[in-house]
Amino acid sequence: MKETNAWKLNGVVAILLFLIFVGIAAGSFYLLDSENQPLYAIPGILGAILAVITLSSIKVVQPNQAITLTFFGRYIGSVREAGFWMTVPFTTAKKVSLRMRNFNSAKLKVNDINGNPIEIAAVVVFRVIDSAKALFDVDKYEVFVEIQSETALRHVATKYPYDNFDDGYSLRGNSEEVAAELVNELQQRLTVAGLEVIEARLTHLAYSAEIAAAMLQRQQADAIVAARQTIVDGAIGMVKMVVADIEASGIALDEERKAAMINNLMVAIVSDRSATPVINTGSLY
């Protein structure tokens, strides 16, 4: 199915035609009653029938709304322009809202790429862009959006870890990239229903209750290791700079003194406590 424009005219034309046909029918029946001529009944009956046909062609379209027209089971087009219209008589009109709508998914329990159970939820903003597809290609497109959104969210969540201190994407650390991929995934799934995905965002992300405490400890341990690695890398650079400056100033250090100095600098920089200086005054005797 593909949306097409239905034939339409200004609704005022239908009102004028309706009044004309009603007038013809009323005049004919009046002459039939006054002159008792059976031939006057024919234009009266035709006028009444045409008035009913004209009345059935009147349709009203609200702003940000479309109506799809079917003529005895055959789709003949849609009307998107708001207003008062005259269309094909005896058509069945179904209304479709073109406004943007939100869908809040339930909290889903899925496993990330590392197999850790997590809870995740998202909000999806969408709208109808093809009324024919929305009504005739899927059964209840609102339910279709709900099921496909949860399916896409599960698929995206299983492709990334919950958290990652190394290089690479994670659900918690790359929310923008995850949201963009979720939009693309949803758009591919919802195009068949004539829907456009405006935005998709994660609204809830957490470890499942049964592993939340253990994963919190793991996060803390990973954070400590990552912080220590950064400290050690910085300390090595600082020690190299100190040794290079001392040697550049002309002070000669043998290997033993150099090793002792490097050891003292590394302990002072890497230690999580303030260094306590010890002054060597030499022997008194």
Automatic annotation (TrEMBL):
Coiled-coil region: none
PANTHER family with a match to the protein in the record: BAND 7 DOMAIN-CONTAINING PROTEIN, MEMBRANE PROTEIN-RELATED
Keywords, sorted A to Z: Membrane, Transmembrane, Transmembrane helix
Lineage summary: Bacteria, Bacillati, Bacillota, Bacilli, Bacillales
Taxonomic superkingdom: Bacteria
Keyword Transmembrane: yes
Gene3D superfamilies associated with the record: Band 7 domain
Transmembrane feature ranges: 12-32, 38-58
UniProt protein name: SPFH domain-containing protein
InterPro entries listed in its UniProt record: Band_7, Band_7/SPFH_dom_sf
